[in-house]
Specification:
The complex is a heterodimer of chains A (about 160) and B (about 800). Helices cover about 30% and strands about 15% of the residues of chain A. Chain A is an alpha+beta fold. Chain A folds into two domains: about 1-75, Ubiquitin-like (UB roll), CATH 3.10.20.30; about 85-155, [2Fe-2S]-binding domain (DNA polymerase, domain 1, Orthogonal Bundle), CATH 1.10.150. In chain A, α2 packs across α5 (about 140-150). Chain A starts with a strand and ends in an 11-residue tail after the last helix. Chain B is of the alpha+beta class. Chain B is built from 19 helices and 28 strands. The chains are: A alpha+beta (about 160), B alpha+beta (about 800). At the A-B interface, α2, α3, α4 and α5 of A face α1 and α17 of B. The structure holds FE2/S2 (inorganic) cluster (FES) (2 copies). One FE2/S2 (inorganic) cluster binds near residues 39, 40, 45 and 60 of chain A. One FE2/S2 (inorganic) cluster binds next to loops of chain A.
């Protein structure tokens, strides 16, 4: 066991972990932050995406110990303290970008990283960027719309592809 | 103007807030103080005899609480099958035992041999690796036809063969169908495969068993689409726990698509182990484990023949299907290739004679059961493919050929035992043609040709039977359950409402749409209405969610319970206003006396029911709570027309979907936004089946496509933007909301559209290919092109 400390959603946290403990396990089981999900064991589904030092990372691909000292943001850290949704979260609700909600935390975190990199992505760029996030419910149509809307573009531009 | 609430409004979903903020409550988020963890040791061979299991070393490993094997389950019931099919000759299907942990033999890769319960997940896994299992490899049967040969190895030694049943439908039509086909002007024949699929909800299955010894109560938290069904099957048939001592909770569930209907061994195991150990026991399935334990879908091999007269009128259909059951009978497996498939073979057409033969076969593979659409996609695919092939052979426009044969008079009794209550297939087809600019297709094809691409257009219709199902009918057909639905409407003293429904939401948005119906009926804001589901402790016995039955059956139960509430409230209002009950009108949350200005608000009536000081106590009980069970009079029949436009790269065989349009008739729609989302998701699964997905075993029974590395899950960039429309609505005639259901349509209607479009693209390029089996991967399309040249 080794001890690890990091900042999660603005709060300093620490814990004892085994060398093989994944960041996603540390967050879910150690910190009770169950919004970050596990949908696969081959690092492909993206249900576990969080931000580590501002970058989108699949939390099942790094060990908790590797995040020593890092600034981690999870889905629980996206809305304002008063409950006001982040604009991406709000756009997902407005455009029905989620059904069962299981892929949603990862989708929102990936979308946030995309918009940081590319504030006005085209529908094709959005689809391309989401290559590492699998959704089985929505057919992605409304996810693309939601991200267009969150970037201040016309959600109906999806049809123009 | 869209409405801002009530029936027909695209109300935003209330459940989204918790899902979007990471505060949902999925089963894996549940951790109970003192819980132990299970790891299942699973067979890595497809077929073998267990000669010995040595757990001695493993027992000594750190953290091990106890190791269970099949021997611990002697005297415990096996996993039951919920549907019995009777074969052509009147004999019941062959029904093998399905032990919770393997006994004597393993029959597919993934079959559980032992279960280690330990203090941590890692300790359980480490100990499982230390168990020594001596297995004698037996030859495996994977191919269905090979499994039926006389000298084939038997999956179950105590059965007479690997044939589960040989089903004929309608058996009395058999000779007439043979004759019509023999004498017809034209017969089109098509052999095709509807490949094995893995449902792959993004949330893997999770089970937590808990037990309170003091009051002898078991609680099972599980990722289920139907907690009451699990309670009944597991309590009554497997573990012998009476229902009042067994609570099953299915909290937020991350998608199901059929695969979470069934009762699985891990549920029985965790409940059993929690009782034995008197502590909570948790199992979280990994994705790799899900591939080899979640029931798979489809896996039919079919030959279909369509007989036509010289004008293109359909005269008869004959089909011959082999349906894979896998190694055991999953909960509803026998119903899928039979009653959910054969009864849909008429499609949207007036074909007078139909005969369906289905041979269900045991193989050394994961059990196969319902997957989104369940039997109906298989029926639609073969029918709409053979019609397209017939149109080409007879040089009739494929749209016209369909129109020549549409059912236009309702109700319509098909020759395959169902009666369509209503529909308008011309309307959805007309609407589709408006959406896709068919006239402009030739120009688009010519433009594509300049770029070296072959462009194709595929059009088809579909019909499905939803809202399952009339209990007396399914009882005759072999169901070992009723298929009603239930609701309790609890009005609180100040007028807010909690509805407890037997339907279950795992992405469908019931908390929002059911509240819209209640808001419309009572005339109070939806915010004052809560929809509660997923817990046998608070909902009346319900059959759960699958087969697009929630709004049609569960919604109807809620409407019936609410009608009882309104009836009673009307009596209370009459008393309060000293008027005759017959003069009371109820609108927008106000009771009024006709022709006067007397009024009493909904909230005042509710308060009077719970504080009955001025109340007709001699005639009426206090309180305002009602339960209804609704058993549907018929199935509902959503139908529609779909079109795919694709481009094929003849150099590589790669298929690109350029456009997809769907025109559906779902009857009345409660929340159009949610309905469109359901169609999008169905389309993605259907197009995924047509182009990408497929579960593959090698000859020895190893699962080749056992993770997301090998099983092609559709990604965002595999799809175009979808165009969907549900404006052509013929309301269902036999349920109170006039609704039909929309959950499966997309997955049913889209695979034939894609394959029809690819064949059209190749034919348009002068390449004579009449069929390619799904998934239409670049390799397969390229090979088909080479084969034709
Ligand atoms: S859990 Fe699937 S990518 Fe991390
Ligand atoms: S909303 Fe269910 S997986 Fe995306």
């Amino acid at each position: 066991m080794t001890s690890v400390s990091m900042t999660v959603n603005g709060k300093p946290v620490s814990g004892e972990v085994e060398g093989r403990t994944l960041l996603v396990e540390f967050l879910r089981e150690g910190q009770g932050l169950t919004g970050t999900h596990v949908g696969c064991d081959t690092s492909q589904c993206g249900a576990c995406v969080v931000h580590v030092n501002g970058e989108a990372v699949k939390a099942c691909t790094i060990f908790a110990a590797e995040a020593e000292g890092a600034e981690v943001t999870t889905i629980e850290g996206m809305a304002e303290a008063d409950g006001t949704l982040h604009p991406i979260q709000q756009a997902f609700q407005d455009h029905h970008g989620l059904q069962c909600g299981f892929c949603t935390p990862g989708m929102v975190m990936s979308a946030a990283a995309l918009l940081k990199e590319n504030p006005q992505p085209s529908p094709a760029e959005i689809r391309d960027y989401l290559e590492g996030n699998i959704c089985r419910c929505t057919g992605y149509h409304n996810i693309v719309k939601a991200i267009l809307a969150a970037s201040g573009q016309d959600a109906n531009a999806i049809a123009a592809e | 103007m869209p409405k801002d609430g009530g029936i027909g409004a695209s109300t935003k979903r209330r459940e989204d807030i918790r899902f979007l903020t990471g505060t949902g409550n999925y089963t894996d988020d549940i951790n109970i103080r003192g819980q132990a963890y299970v790891h299942f040791l699973r067979s890595d061979v497809a077929h073998g005899r267990i000669k010995g299991i040595d757990t001695a070393e493993a027992e000594k490993m750190p953290g091990v609480v106890r190791i269970f094997t099949g021997a611990d389950f002697e005297g415990v019931g096996g996993i039951p099958c919920g549907w019995q099919v009777t074969d052509r000759h009147g004999a019941p299907m062959q029904e093998p035992a399905h032990p919770v942990l393997a006994q004597g033999k393993v029959r597919h890769v993934g079959d559980p041999i032992a279960a280690v319960v330990a203090e941590s997940r890692e300790q359980a896994r480490d100990a499982a690796e230390a168990i020594e299992v001596d297995i004698e490899d037996l030859p495996a049967v994977i191919d269905m036809k090979a499994a039926l040969e006389d000298d084939a190895p038997k999956v179950h030694d105590d059965l007479s063969s690997n044939l589960c049943f040989d089903w004929g439908f309608v058996e009395e039509n058999r000779e007439a169908v043979d004759k019509a086909i023999k004498e017809a002007h034209h017969v089109t024949t098509l052999e095709l495969i509807n490949q094995r699929m893995v449902a792959n909800p993004m949330e893997p299955r999770v089970v937590v068993g808990d037990y309170k010894r003091a009051n002898d109560e078991s609680t099972l938290y599980t990722t289920s689409q139907n907690p009451h069904v699990i309670r009944l099957l597991m309590g009554a048939f497997v573990l012998g726990i009476p229902e009042h001592k067994l609570r099953v909770v299915a909290p937020d569930v991350g998608g199901g698509f059929g695969s979470k209907i069934f009762h699985y061994a891990e549920e029985a195991f965790c409940t059993f182990a929690a009782r034995k150990l008197a502590r909570p026991v948790k199992w979280t399935c990994t994705r790799s484990e899900a591939f080899m334990t979640d029931a798979h879908g489809r896996d039919h091999v079919t030959k279909i023949e369509l007989a036509l007269d010289k004008d293109g009128k359909f005269l008869a259909i004959r089909t011959d299907t082999h349906a894979n059951m896998g190694a055991y009978l999953s909960t509803f497996a026998p119903s899928v290739p039979t009653w959910l498939h054969g009864t849909l073979m008429a499609g949207n057409y007036t074909t007078p004679l139909i005969y369906v033969n289905v041979k269900a076969v045991f193989t050394n593979t994961v059990p196969v059961d319902a997957y989104r659409g369940a039997g109906r996609p298989e029926a639609t695919f073969q029918l709409e493919r053979v019609i397209d092939k017939a149109a080409r052979e007879m040089e009739i426009d494929p749209v016209e050929l369909r129109r020549k044969n549409f059912v236009r008079e309702f109700p319509y009794a098909t020759p395959v035992a169902v009666e369509y209550d209503t529909g308008d297939y011309d309307a959805t087809l007309d609407r589709l043609l408006e959406m896709i600019d068919r006239d402009g297709f030739a120009a688009r094809r010519a433009e594509a040709a300049k770029r070296g691409k072959l462009r194709g257009l595929g059009i088809n219709c579909y019909i499905e039977a939803c809202g399952i199902a009339p209990s007396n009918l399914v009882g005759q057909l072999g169901a070992r359950a009723g298929l009603y639905e239930s609701a309790t409407v609890r009005v609180n003293a100040t007028g807010s409402i909690s509805v407890f429904t037997g339907s279950h939401s795992h992405g469908q948005g019931h908390e929002t749409s059911f509240a819209q119906v209640m808001s419309e009926m009572i005339g109070i804001p939806a915010e004052q209405i809560d929809i509660v589901h997923g817990d046998t402790a608070n909902s009346p016995m319900g059959m759960g969610t699958y087969g697009s039955r929630s709004i049609a059956v569960g919604g109807s139960a809620m409407v019936r319970a609410t009608e009882k509430i309104i009836g009673k409230a009307r009596k209370i209002a009459a008393h309060l206003m000293e008027a005759a009950e017959g003069d009371i009108e109820f609108k927008d949350g106000q009771f009024t006396v006709a022709g006067t200005d007397k009024a009493v608000a909904w909230g005042d009536v509710c308060l009077a029911a719970y504080v009955p000081h001025n109340y007709p106590l001699e005639e009426l009980e206090p309180g305002l709570e009602e339960t209804a069970f609704y058993d549907p009079a018929n199935f509902t029949y959503p139908a529609g027309a779909y079109a795919a436009e694709v481009e094929v790269d003849p150099e590589t065989g790669k298929v690109t979907v350029c456009g997809f349009a769907a025109a559906d008739d779902f009857g009345n729609v409660i929340n159009p936004m949610i309905v469109e989302g359901q169609v999008h998701g169905g389309l993605a699964q259907g197009i995924g089946q047509a182009l990408l997905e497929g579960c593959v075993y090698d000859e020895s029974g190893q699962l080749i496509s056992g993770s997301y590395m090998d099983y092609a899950m559709p990604r965002a960039d595999d799809f175009p933007a979808f165009r969907v429309d549900h404006s052509c609505a013929t309301p269902c005639t036999h349920n109170p909301l006039g609704v039909k259901g929309c959950g499966e349509a997309g997955a049913i209607g889209s695979p034939p559209a894609i394959v029809n479009a690819v064949v059209d693209a190749l034919q348009g390029g002068g390449i004579d290919v009449t069929h390619i089996d799904m998934p239409l991967s670049p390799g397969r399309v390229w090979q088909a092109i080479q084969g034709a040249n």
